[in-house]
From TrEMBL:
Name of the protein this chain belongs to: Choline O-acetyltransferase
Record flagged with keyword Coiled coil: no
Originating species: Labeo rohita
Keywords, sorted A to Z: Acyltransferase, Neurotransmitter biosynthesis, Transferase
Family under the similarity heading: Belongs to the carnitine/choline acetyltransferase family.
Function: Catalyzes the reversible synthesis of acetylcholine (ACh) from acetyl CoA and choline at cholinergic synapses.
Length: 513
């Protein structure tokens, strides 16, 4: 039986508005150990004035409570606008995360085309059972329309415009006479597109490069682009499409995990697949039997004026600089995995977060504000919230580890437990953690982006930084991280007797997650 994510949404609880004092106390706790004492004193005075009886804090809290009654999710619009739509940075690296899946060994180009036609299937006890894919609705049914100061999230709805019935590579119609093509027909069309794309004399300028620019620059270029009716029609086809599929050319680079992550994030630049990126949107359609005659896919046409060529040149240059600036290191730590951590009766996520804090402190001698994403999808219209991983408890632990000669192992272990507990408590306030392996760039010029995927006997880390920053180095961070993880394991083995009996047989007898 299929369950529609949309129909179940109204059965979910609304995201609660935290009490004002709880919010203020949490903010001060998160800042107390990260800024100089004098600066914290001033911050505390501002917060106390804000939260005073009859003050602006109480007024705004009342407004939020009223909003929470009127809206399915009181924070959704604020989060969307502040975190995304008002951000003027280019989307590649700065905003758009990517998933990197296991390598696939393709015997031919035909295999790569078949890979572009997946269906979700269940695992475990229901292995092989097709799953409802309605949860991907928002991923596909919208696109981000650039604006000079603020982007707009445009969702395709059948009440406003006809249902989208094509996929963008070229224009591939997947619905003919109200019937959907089956997988065999789609494969036939993909083969046609691959052959058409190989015709050198028909290749067109990489208009997609314009979308890799800053949002204000793309908005300006788009306004010039759509002055021509041919360009306007092609852009309209893209913005109303069922979904987007990119069939990249071979990159010519060794497909290490780090290089695959880079190719996913930015396409490798203008000399590889950086111009082969667009966004699109889908629809709910009726399945149909195969049709004997299929119309040929249509190539999108563009007219490239001197002004557009100027925009393309500028966009290509900026993308190349971004590609060269990004420092990515994907590393598989094989010393142990989540089974060892779980035997310590610790949360793998909390443990890894503390390890990341330990690593940053070992590299830089202090901690900084850290943003960990956590899912709040158990609530209506839930997206993600923040977990503040740079806790006072984590700082106490990493300081103790750095001053190893002055503090006993038992004291360090107690501090580790306290740090783990604090991290887990933060996690409880935002109920679900997404422990997927993804990649993204740093959110500040002198910071790191760190993703991880704890597996049974290893942990995959993906660390990014910018080469232009003299303060950061992805390679140094990863090397230091391995050492910190080993130190934490040694501490656990010394102090946590529950871990010792099973340690030698970890890889043979690890329990299922």
């Amino acid at each position: 039986m299929e369950f529609s994510g949309w129909s179940l949404r109204k059965g979910l609880p609304k995201l609660p508005v935290p009490p004002l004092q709880q919010t203020l106390d949490m903010y001060l706790k998160c800042m107390s150990h990260l800024i100089p004492e004098e600066q914290f004193k001033k911050t505390k005075e501002i917060v106390e004035k804000f939260g005073a009886p009859g003050g602006i804090g109480e007024f705004l809290q009342k407004k939020l409570l009223e909003r929470s009654v009127q809206k399915a999710n009181w924070v959704y619009d604020y989060w969307l606008e502040d975190m995304y739509l008002s951000n003027r940075l280019a989307l590649p690296v700065n905003s758009s995360p990517v998933m990197v899946f296991p390598k696939q060994n393709f015997r031919s180009q035909s295999d790569t085309l078949r890979r572009a036609l997946p269906v979700d299937y269940a695992r475990g006890q229901l292995a092989g059972t097709p799953l409802c894919m309605d949860q991907y609705n928002k991923v596909f049914t919208s696109y981000r329309l650039p604006g000079p100061k603020l982007d707009t999230l445009v969702a395709q709805k059948s009440t406003v415009m006809p249902e989208p019935e094509h996929i963008i590579f070229f224009v591939l119609d997947v619905v003919i006479n109200f019937r959907r093509l089956n997988e065999k027909d789609l494969y036939t069309q993909l083969e046609r597109i691959r052959k058409m794309a190989d015709i050198e004399e028909e290749r067109l300028p990489p208009i997609g490069l314009l979308t890799s620019d800053g949002r204000t620059q793309w908005a300006e270029a788009r306004s010039v682009l759509i002055k021509d009716s041919t360009n306007r029609d092609s852009l309209d086809m893209i913005e109303r499409c069922l979904c987007l599929v990119c069939l990249d050319e071979p990159s010519g680079t060794e497909l290490t995990d780090s290089n695959r992550a880079l190719l996913m994030l930015h396409g490798g630049g203008t000399d590889k697949n950086g111009g082969n990126r667009w966004r699109g949107s889908p629809s709910k359609l009726v399945r149909a039997a195969s049709m004997s005659e299929l119309p040929a896919p249509r190539r999108l046409r563009w007219k490239c004026s001197p002004d557009i060529q100027t925009f393309l040149t500028a966009s290509a240059d900026k993308l190349q600089r971004l590609v060269k600036n990004l420092d990515m290191n994907v590393n598989k730590f094989t010393g142990y995995g989540k089974e060892f951590i779980k035997r310590q009766k610790m949360s793998p996520d909390a443990y890894v977060q503390v390890a990341l804090q330990f690593t940053f402190y070992r590299c830089h001698g202090h901690l900084v504000p850290t943003y960990e994403s956590a899912s709040i999808r158990r609530f209506q219209e839930g997206r993600v919230d923040n977990i503040r991983s740079s806790t006072p408890e984590a700082l106490a632990f990493v300081k103790a580890m750095a001053n190893s000669s002055k503090i006993t192992d038992a004291e360090k272990m107690e501090l580790l437990w306290t740090a783990i507990k604090a991290q887990t408590n933060y996690t409880i306030l935002v109920p679900t953690i997404e422990e997927m392996f993804c990649c993204y760039g740093p959110v500040v010029p002198n910071g790191y982006g760190a993703c991880y995927n704890p597996q049974k006997d290893h942990i995959i880390f993906c660390v990014s930084s910018f080469r232009e920053s003299a303060e950061t180095s992805s390679d140094l961070f990863v090397k230091t991280l391995e050492g910190c993880l080993k130190e934490m394991q040694d501490l656990c083995l010394k102090c946590n007797t529950e871990a010792k009996p099973a340690d030698s047989t970890e890889k043979k007898n690890g329990s299922k997650s």
